[in-house]
Sequence to fold (404 residues):
Amino acid sequence: MAKVNRDYQKLPGSYLFSTIGKKVREYEAANPGKRVIRLGIGDVTQPLSPEIIKALHSAVDEMGDAKTFKGYAPDLGYEFLRKVISEKDYKARSCEIGPDEIFISDGAKCDCGNIQEIFSRDNVVAVCDPVYPVYVDSNVMAGRTGEYDPEKQRFNGVVYMPCTAETDFVPKLPEEVPDLIYLCFPNNPTGAVINKERLQEWVDYANMNGSVILYDSAYEAYISEPGIPHSIYECKGAENCSIEFRSFSKTAGFTGLRLGYTVVPRALKLEGVALHDLWARRHGTKYNGAPYIVQRAGEAVYSEKGRQEIEKQIGFYMENARLIYEGLKEAGYQVSGGVNAPYIWLRTPDDMTSWEFFDLLLNKANVVGTPGSGFGPGGEHYFRLTAFGNRENTVEAVERIKRI
Ligand SMILES: *Cc1c(COP(=O)(O)O)cnc(C)c1O
Fold:
């Protein structure tokens, strides 16, 4: 008889966004005249830029001509894209990452979720708290954790690294050494960044202890301050201990198109085994993750014109972030983030829980955000607002919050 994977049942379910949806629907049904503004979504809203659309059209035409038609993409992705990534994302920042160390995929979420498969089941995993839930969830499903403890709101067997205001929302090096360390900077949900010196400490720690860092830099394009690394490979020795994930989703509006990549350096070896060779055998995105058409669209992001258009788009979101940040600060909130990331992280007033503040914002300002506790127990008493709205709604939402 077939059996199910019981580890999947350890997950409490997608409580966060379904509860938000339910509360908003109920409020709207009870208050038909009210216009609710959503500043909680983690999805972009601006359309794809003209250079990207042009590249898509031309690649579509190629697919319709026998002379230029493309079937399965090469294993690692097309060389034209891997080459331009190696040049512009890495060599331009003095990181020696070659095209054959880059694996193109259909987005970072799958790669962040699947990467754990190349590691032994008995590895101990460490995550930032709060953080993007994918890292913990994928390890739960793989059986690398114990049961969920509803009281502590944590899975047993996982090292949660507190990211608090006292340390600028950057975790401290754990005393109990984990095997796999997930880091995400700029961070979702806190919007925090890590400077090069502190990231170097993590790289040294991992190299000294034989740990592997899984570095998610999906938001690197939002970094505006100097001295903040865009890639972990800006740190010395990172190629010996780090895997990096990147995505075109938030940086170029590809959430619906789907494109990302993962860097597994050739130098990264565990027990004499090159992780590059293991990831080359991965399932899922190997042959069909990112279509030729989409990889051509990705290439356009790196053209001079494409880059200018993308920068304008990011500038638009970051102006939203600035408006939210400044507005909340003026209103007396304790705010962070929003400078190197499209996320604003605020401390709830009067020690309200994240959900109490959610209800207050929905009822008094008709604004929807995301309770920080949904990103881990360390997010309790915090709240996330995102810069992905349109300008009019963002300005109006800030005005309404100020009036509470
Ligand atoms: C959105 C996001 C991703 C990537 O998403 P994809 O659309 O799958 O590329 C990765 N990491 C973080 C932290 C994100 O917020």
About this structure: The pocket of pyridoxal-5'-phosphate is lined by residues 42, 107-109, 112, 132, 184, 188, 216, 218, 247, 249-250, 255, 260 (CB under 6 Å). The CA atoms of residues 81 and 298 lie 7 Å apart.
